[in-house]
Design goal:
alpha/beta; FAD/NAD(P)-binding domain; binds flavin-adenine dinucleotide
């Protein structure tokens, strides 16, 4: 079943309140032609548009709502060079060459964000590469994190990672709850909506037409090309790119992609401005922070507020119970926040895949797609735009495990939602008993 795109709720996030004003783009109201029609104006679609235009081809972007309405406008803004699957696991199953290629892709992704921010002068994105601390709740998970860091240094030549003991992680986070951690200086943070709006503005200023409130309701082939129909008009193009990720079921035109994905609700809360006695005390190093738990939470300071996010068995809609659970987890880590009110809470869908890596490739000889960022897509979707442009030009880049030729629709698809909840519950149980 698809969702009703006419009744899409708006997002009341910290980012919406603090972002640069959104530029309004027109609604598609007349027939258009392009080399490539791109469906979805998140990071994937806009980066693809930019790189396609740079190749001398003409893209057109169609967005169901407005640019950034999807995950790209409401995420945590944490930038990391990794996949949900660890490089060590990739190495164990697929061998050294594959692990190295995936490591390369991961690092290309964080560089791509820097490149786009600099190319379009998006200073309001406040991109920082201050690093990320992975904090461990117990000795078992700390040992696993240290083993992983040692392996990365030894086998991938990643000299950057630093091990933190209990006092080191306390100095970093301001919390006494962790037993140690690992610092990865390559990661960073960004204002996700300003980054998105900067991209949309930059791409449009170079002559790429972007249409908002123009959902593609039908995608059909015709001789020599493809037609993307919206309720009022259509775009005829030689190729199409589907960049709809976890919102692929907004209309029937892209819903088939949703069958390769497991949508998972991810939620974020933000406190009011911290009182004077706490400012500079929590997370004084200004990095981003995650936990070693399976149902991982992450946190950072933005605008002198604590932002705290995580995934869970949250279900289809926002639920107060889920936000309450998130707040409790935040106060468990930072008891000082017990009396600091929340100012914002919001959520969105991340797209998980069965093999824990994104999928990029061709659906047929005219249609390309890139989806399934597994909740770590700010940098990766920005990079996939560049690779999509390479596919459009007829190149065949080495995409490692991301190559969608390997992708199968999820078996027993209708059962995936109850299954997601069972798996999430099991992970929460393992976390609770410290495994
Ligand atoms: C709450 C949350 C927190 C997250 N935190 C992080 C984080 O800290 N770090 C990180 O790396 N990643 C994070 N992510 C993941 C990251 O945001 C996504 O992987 C990334 O934004 C995906 O970008 P995208 O362009 O592929 O998809 P989206 O940004 O979701 O864009 C897809 C767009 O397609 C449009 N669309 C859908 N159907 C149609 C149609 N038929 N016609 C036209 N348009 C259509 C939608 O309206 C939407 O705007 C988070 C995600 C969420 C939800």
């Amino acid at each position: 079943m698809t969702r009703d795109w006419r009744a899409l709720p708006s997002v009341n996030s910290l980012w919406e309140t603090t972002a640069e004003p959104a530029r309004a783009f027109p609604v598609l109201s007349s027939e258009q032609q392009a080399d490539v029609v791109i469906i979805g104006a998140g990071y994937t679609g806009l980066s693809a548009a930019h790189h396609i235009a740079k190749s001398g081809l003409s893209p057109i972007v169609l967005e169901a709502n407005r640019p950034g309405w999807g995950a790209s406008g409401r995420n945590g803004g944490v930038i990391t060079a990794k996949f949900r699957l660890s490089f060590r696991d990739i190495d164990a199953v697929h061998g050294r060459a594959m692990a190295r290629r995936m490591y390369e892709i991961a690092h290309e992704s964080t560089d791509m964000v820097e490149e786009l921010v600099s190319e379009f002068g998006i200073t309001s994105a406040n991109l920082v590469r201050t690093g990320q601390v992975k904090a461990a709740h117990n000795d078992t998970t700390l040992k696993a994190a240290i083993d992983e860091a040692d392996w990365m240094t030894r086998e991938m030549g990643s000299a950057e990672v630093r091990i933190l003991d209990k006092s080191g992680v306390r100095e970093e986070t301001g919390s006494d709850i962790f037993v140690g951690g690992v610092l990865n200086p390559g990661s960073g943070g960004i204002h996700p909506l300003n980054y998105l709006r900067g991209l949309a503005k930059g791409v449009a200023s170079r002559g790429v037409p972007i249409f908002q409130e123009s959902p593609v309701v039908r995608l059909r082939s015709e001789k020599g090309g493809i037609v993307a129909e919206t309720p009022q008009a259509a775009v005829r193009a030689r190729q199409a790119i589907i960049a709809t990720n976890s919102y692929s079921d907004l209309t029937g035109a892209t819903a088939h992609l949703q069958r390769t994905l497991i949508p998972f609700r991810s939620a974020i809360i933000a406190t009011e401005h911290l009182p004077r006695n706490l400012a500079g005390k929590l997370m004084p190093t200004g990095r981003t922070y995650t936990e070693t738990k399976r149902m991982m939470r992450w946190f950072r300071i933005v605008d002198n507020r604590v932002i705290f996010g995580g995934r869970g068995a949250f279900g289809k809609q926002d639920s107060q119970a889920a936000f309450d659970a998130l707040r409790k987890a935040m106060v468990d880590i930072f008891p000082e926040l017990a009396d600091v009110p929340l100012a914002y809470k919001w959520s969105g869908l991340v797209a998980m895949t069965l093999d824990s890596v994104p999928h990029i490739g061709r659906r047929d000889d005219r249609t390309l797609f890139s989806v399934g960022y597994n909740g770590a897509g700010v940098a990766m979707s920005s990079l996939m735009g560049r690779y999509l442009a390479a596919f459009v030009r007829g190149e065949t880049p080495n995409m490692g495990l991301l190559d969608a030729g390997r992708v199968k629709a999820i078996p027993f698809y209708p059962l995936r939602e109850p299954a997601v909840r069972i798996v999430a519950g099991w992970y929460q149980f393992l976390d609770a008993i410290g495994q």
